[in-house]
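Quick entry, no commentary yet.
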Amino acid sequence: MSGVRDLHSGRPVPANARFRAGSVTKVFTAAVVLQLVAEGRLDLDQTVQHYLPGLLPENYRPVTVGQLLNHTSGLPPADQTKGLPAEETADGFTWIYKRRFEHWTPERIVALAVQDKMEFEPGTAQHYLNINYTVAGMLIEKITGSSYERQVRERILRPLGLRHTSLPTDDPFLHGPHTNGYQVLDGKTIDVTVWGHSMEWAAGNLVSTTADLERFTKALFRGDVVPAPQLEQMFTVPPKEVRMYGDAKEEANYSMGLTRMDMPGGIVLWGKTGGRYGYLTGIGGLRNPAGAGESPRTLVYSYNSVDAKSESVKPRMMKIIMTAFS
């Protein structure tokens, strides 16, 4: 652990610092959906239209629950910048920073998305989009009759003792020990710590610590979170004929909640990264431990970046991953 918790005080990062985990949230969401599948309350092959009638336009092709989880649904992204001035959206940051305390409901997000036509026939391509997990969160609420946040809390956080992990919804503050997040724009460093993330909801609203995420990752890989038959779906990517949307040369590499990464030496790493402005997070591990009864080899990292949503951060993250598993 290195660095400081904030640029003002210069104090070191607390060992139990909380941070925004971004799309690592999707692993928790997928786990809850797969638990419901194991309980017979959801069917991966049943359609969204069946469970949530009227949510999607009548001219949309049937989308299954499984296609939501592995990003092969064909649903279009929710463009929250529609109608905004071009100069406000040009840098990708200004518009969202101005609206960082705005409340977004999942219904509003879906309504924005479905103004556009489907991107592709469901099941024929893969496009990683938050909209899939927004709908997955809505499914959880419809089937259980309670909030998405409560289901994650009761099914995962409490049983595993993840006391420093939460889904704050509209609460913009990081409570307790935490690291501040910053974004650089036009040479200015902006503190982005206080920020409401209802826009990301079931796709990216998690707050956690490295210790909690390590406990979760080990438990997930051991089979202590999702029953074995459904856990297999988290380690299964679509067939090779399914390619990434817009890049026919790239095979699909997202499973239901995780990402497959083929590394040198035949090593296959499974995990998930997450990025919110000011914060980069990653969890991952090798599926099969070295021997029976052993915990899986895992990695959890949290990195405060002033360009967290930029492509330039990928080499830095790859260096961390390669060092841990090569």
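second:
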Amino acid sequence: MRLISRLSWLFVGGLFIFSGLIKINDPVGTAIKLEEYFDVFAADFSSFFLIFKPYALFLSIFLSALEIILGVALLLRWRLRQILRGLLVLIIFFTFLTFYSAYFNKVTDCGCFGDAIKLTPWQSFSKDILLLLLIVVLLATRRYLPETKTARVAGVLVALTAILSFGIGIYAYNHEPFIDFRAYKVGNNIPALMKPSSPLRYKYIMARNGQEKEFTQYPTDSTWKFKQMVAINPEDGPKITDFNVWNDQGDFTQEVFSGNKLLILVQDVSKVNPKKFADINNLIVAAEKSSKNIKPVVVTASSTQDFDVFRHEANLSAPYYFGDATVLKTMMRANPGIMLLKNGQVVGKWHYNDTPGIQTVERQL
């Protein structure tokens, strides 16, 4: 039993730290996932949950940091009883979320490990059930995990962990994530990722006389009735399926993939201070004069009317197109943000707080 207790202690502590670090690396992405939960609960239970949406970013950083802090405290065996109770409350909360997502198919990705590891709702629920059982084991076998004899030192380390965790979250919010796990990370070729890596193969689920059967080829026997077609190798499908840009004149997606393009991504003009565009406007002017033949392009998810008003306030002179709001949030966590493409390949990404000079941009090409 002592071995089981020790293994559970290491696994639970390590997994909470890992999960928290992955999420606090991208607090905006975690906040987006929380907003999705709030919308679902508001629709299914009460509009009361919409009260939390403005605080999604704060809750994102707080909950992610809390996972790290509790994980470190557990491994240090500092105030073990209180820490285990805190972990129990947290995992019960997470288990409810993942069960609700899985059973009612409401949120197809819980965001447990951000964009680093994608889990299906039932996989997420199974993971939380395992953690719940292990925490119960730890509570029942706490006598095999004596508290640290250097409580003061452990307390200082936990405090430093808290400061560092919140610091990482705040820094990642004001810049881009430290590690980019998204399909639009630097080095990726967007048009290549819009194609399957190999031909997709499917199986056909058919029904006859109340029984179901799977076929790898569509049956010629007409007594079988079609129910569903499921991809056998979905991992080989396109990693990017919803990227495109357009304006009133048509689709300009392929134009964006041609040559050197400096994309200024503006998700929502209502949440942007026009004064933040001073450095971006200087970069646009310098790019237009560059010998590298860089073409600045603005992509926004705002309406035509709203963006027309905004671009005059911000003195944005570059041509602009429209894109899907969710896609723009995936491409860039900053609003606004800057992405440099070379024939469709991402060669640079910058938060508006890190707007580069033209020399930095040219070096990337």
